[in-house]
Amino acid sequence: MEYRQLGGSGLKVPVLSYGAATFGGGTPLFKAWGETDVAEATRLVDICLDAGVNFFDTADIYSKGMSEEILGKAIGKRRNDVIISTKATFAMSKNPNDLGSSRYHLIRAVEDSLRRLGTDHIDVYHMHGFDAITPIEEVLSTLNNLIESGKVRYIGCSNFSGWHLMKSLSISERHGWSKYVSHQAYYSLIGREYEWELMPLAIDQKVATMVWSPLGWGRLTGKIKRNTGIPDGSRLHETASYGPPVEDNYLFDVVDALEEIAGETGKTIPQVALNWLLHRPTVANIVIGARNEEQLRQNLGAVGWNLTADQVARLDAASDITPIYPYWHQRQFEERNPLPVRRVPALV
Residue 328: which region, alpha, beta or left (left: phi > 0; alpha: psi -120 to 50)? Predict the structure, then answer.
């Protein structure tokens, strides 16, 4: 298993982590994703560790805490062998203070997550979304105090806009507080908007990308092809409206390219789609999910080999779209504004 540095920190993480959103199934949305119990979760954790995947990602909102509880039990006495990431920001109850990134909520959220996970510290703690109500100074000073207390090791964010992240980094630097070292973001072959603003920012500021939903909200599993429709049993029947919209012709053009390259490499469509992400700048880790052992083993097969430069270029071309303003305009000035560009430079 390849390890990469998590942004500007000294922490090394495997290029794949296991996302535990399928653990529990405690709400209608998460039930559509999966209902993994402790026994099955323990088996999946075993498989991950055998493959060198020792990074596990969850969130307090996943099945209202059940995911954290099940993950903690599945890890058990192996806590010192793993890296745990969890997240907070979204509402956990109808209490008006039981959401957001206020000092009041974050301190309680950390304590609750520690209890559910059965641990005394969280390795990487992410803000699950940007809280525009709470002053950023309040958020970051609280997170810095949590690091100093030993309850949190590193901090990250998720689903931030460029200015959210840049302002946060600037405030942390001004006060000498710990900075966000990672950004959990949606990025896939059918969702490349991350490249327009957030990737150039991450390169400049040394913020690692942890990719969530790398298979385009379940659309790049290989089960959805031109003229087949969404198959029976797909979670998209229940969850499509929660994710990013994708125009059919664009999706199928990308799937056609994936299928062609899968045939050349002897790999599956999901494995090719995941491997493509590992060639992208800033990507330190891809959060993979699986409802069962078969899905997990297939996703683990995305590493240990590499697409050729020609295959990467063909996938780039098949998935390229004209960005919104000002990014389409910036593409006309590539010699002085190299990112974002039509052809993203290879990871070095």
Answer: alpha
DSSP state of 24: -
Residue 36 sits at φ, ψ, to 5 deg, of -65, 125
pLDDT at 346: 42
Average pLDDT over residues 133-156: 98
Q: Longest Cα pair distance anywhere in the chain, in angstroms?
A: 56
Q: Which residues pair with 154 in a beta bridge?
A: 124
CATH 3.20.20.100 fits domain 3-307: yes
Vertex 179: Cα angle to 174 and 184 (nearest 5): 140
> Residue 56 phi/psi, 5° resolution?
-125, 130
Tokens for 276?
């493509």
Given a cut of 60, whether residue 291 has pLDDT beyond it is yes
pLDDT, mean of residues 317-345: 79
Q: Where are the beta strands (DSSP E) in 188-282?
A: 208-212
Is the four-CA dihedral 193, 195, 197, 198 of positive or negative sign? Answer: positive
Give me the active site residues, please: 62
**What is the separation, in whole angstroms, between the first and last Cα of the chain?**
18
In the chain, the amino acid numbered 2 is: E
Burial bucket for residue 38 (CB in 10 Å: 0-12, 13-18, 19+): middle
The helix, strand and coil proportions of the chain, stated in percent and rounded to the nearest 5, come to: 45, 15, 40
Residue 88 to residue 169: CA distance in whole angstroms: 19
Question: Which residue shows structure tokens 């992208």?
Answer: 280
Q: What mean pLDDT is predicted for residues 89-101?
A: 97
Could you give the C-alpha distances from 248 to 19, 189, 254, 255, in angstroms and in order? 27, 14, 10, 10
Reported in sequence order, the residue ranges of 114-234 that DSSP labels E, i.e. its strands, are 122-127, 152-158, 180-186, 208-212
The upper half-sphere exposure of residue 47, i.e. CA atoms within 13 Å in the direction of its Cβ, equals 20
Look up residue 249 and give its two tokens: 């012709």
Which of 2, 10, 1 is CA-nearest to residue 208?
Answer: 10
CB atoms within 10 A of CB 256: 13
The structural domains of the chain, with segments of one domain joined by +, span: 3-307
